[in-house]
Amino acid sequence: MMEGMDKKRILMVSANPWDTDRIRLDQEHDVIQEVMEHSQGQERYDIKVLTAARGSRFQDLLLDFKPHIIHYSGHGEEDQLAFDSGGEKAHWISNEILIELFKSAAPVLECVVLNSCRTETLANSVSEHIDFVIGMSQNINDQTAIQFARGFYKALFTGHPYTKAFQQALIGVELAGLPGHLTPRLKIRENARRFSFAPGCEPDILILCPESQKEWMRMVRAELDDLLSLRLGSRNTFTLALATDADETLPEAARKAGLLLPVISARFEGSTVCKAALDAFMAAADSGGLDRIFPLQTEGASLPEALRSVLPHPFWRTGGETVAAGDAWFNATLEMLVREITGRLHRLKDEIEYRRKIEAKHEKASQPLEKLDFPPAILFVNSAPEDEDLREEITGILKENGVEYLEPMDMADNPTPEEIRRALELNIEICHLHVLIHGRSRLPWVQEQFLYSQKVWRQLKQNLKIVVIHKEIKRGAKGEIKGNLRNARIYACPPEKFPDYLFGCMGEVCHE
Predict the structure, then answer these.
(1) Which segment of 5-9, 312-316, 376-380 scores lowest on mean pLDDT?
(2) d(Cα 259, Cα 289) in Å, to the nearest integer?
(3) Which residues are paired to 45 by β-bridges?
(4) Torsion angle (degrees, nearest 10) of CA 91, 96, 101, 106
(5) 151 or 384: whose pLDDT is higher?
(6) Contact 301, 268 (CB under 8 A)
(7) Cα–Cα distance, 311 to 57 (Å, whole number)
(8) Which one of 103, 302, 356, 381 is at 20 to 30 Å from 325 when CA atoms are compared?
């Protein structure tokens, strides 16, 4: 450890009062200590253990020790945790008091691990104040809790971030053949530094398969993890999880996933849990989420009816034999899958971040638009850097007239065609007016982008209004964008006439 570098302080807190069931708290502490002693990064951590913990002593150590990580082991209920009272009965401390205690330890406190039963409710509340909080969604047995702690701290002590350590802990529970590998839940504060690829997705990628295919899928996941880490830059930049129908909470977990990889087989079709998880994912995703589902087809099985329009990735040979890891067909199919997943992850991240920007912009709007009969205008800038003066002129007009507007993309940033198209689609879903500025760009290119977005227009209940601004357009001239653009009205105008078109004088140069 470099001189002057502060150690991460971990406070291990445990309580097993006489009137509660016996649990192996000492074994859990010993496992964590052993993992640290055999880790190369042990010099970066300092552990203090508080056994038979009383609430008052816990509070004292929060003030004196100033931990970065708190690990609680003991008995939990949805609204309280058990502490020692010094007598024969437990002292149950309510979630409200515990939230205030954890809150008082911020901002030094970075992570709280509530390794006890039914603590997800508390974890949700604590995560409003602490960056990373782990709670349990239901009861968890001793061996699973101990194995989870072992995997989490092993990864942490070797330098992985909290999100990756959490993922490794889940894998460790599954590899040990223990139940409840989806019971631990990681909660991340909204503004926390996080390492998942798509914000808000837990995990980024979820592999869904029958329990009987788990061993084969473990090999696939290992290969997938390696290839994705190469394409995305690091294993720390995404989360990948494997879940089977042995866990009945799987449908709820599927709702939060970014991408879903169902392993299609005859056994999948016969699994009510797998089918419920697929239905839950599709119900939670926009437009059914079909573009976020990548079926892994095995044994020559047919796709479920709901996925018939999705292109599968076949991991089987003629005759129904599932291919093994390392096989040439396996490698080719996996490489294609990784390319598609990587591209979709990038788009998913952009979609989520863009929607958050839109929501934040709308929340900041101080007053409604009284003069306009449509939502806030979007200013979609399609201009070269030399057209900056025209863009400034139009934004100035919008500001002067009190029109709220969004400026989601500038061609000066050199976005890809796919980014441009996706931005158009997202814009259209939110607003009903587009102001399109094109200076030296060619009109056929502009027309192509709007034609691509027709599928979104068809869903609108009212017409989409597009104002095309170009210095060469003369008042009274017909717009140059052509095509059967359903549900869209296109208006062309010179910059100096833009206010007239905004407030009711747009009909003169209209064409559909």
Answers:
(1) 376-380
(2) 9
(3) 8
(4) 150
(5) 151
(6) yes
(7) 59
(8) 302
Is residue 67 reached through a cis peptide bond, with omega within 30 degrees of 0 on the bond before it? no
What are phi and psi for residue 185, nearest 5 degrees?
A: -130, 130
For residues 436 and 439, what is the distance between their CA atoms, to the nearest angstrom? 10
Name the average pLDDT for the chain: 76
Instruction: Please provide the size of the chain in residues.
Output: 512
Measured between its terminal Cα atoms, the distance across the chain in Å is 70
59/322 Cα distance (integer angstroms): 57
Sheet strands (E) in 273-387: 296-297, 313-314, 377-381
Sign of CA dihedral 118, 122, 128, 133: negative
CA gap 117, 382 in Å, rounded: 55
Residue 407 scores a pLDDT above 70: no
365 in Cβ contact with 414 (< 8 Å): no
Using alpha carbons, select from 452, 495, 492, 456 the residue that is nearest to residue 476: 492
* Domains parsed from the chain with CATH numbers: 1-194 (3.40.50.1460), 196-364 (3.40.50.10140), 366-509 (3.40.50)
Nearest in space to 199 (alpha carbons), one of 374, 346, 363: 346
Mean pLDDT across 296-307: 87
Q: How far apart are CA 43 and CA 144, in angstroms?
A: 27
Q: Which residues contact 102 (CB under 8 A, 6 or more apart)?
A: 70, 109, 112, 126, 129, 130
CA distance 45 to 43: 6
DSSP 217-244: HHHHHHHHHHHHHHHHS-GGG--EEEEE
Residue 114 pLDDT class (50, 70, 90 cuts): very high
* Residue 318 DSSP code: T
Single-letter residue type at 149: A
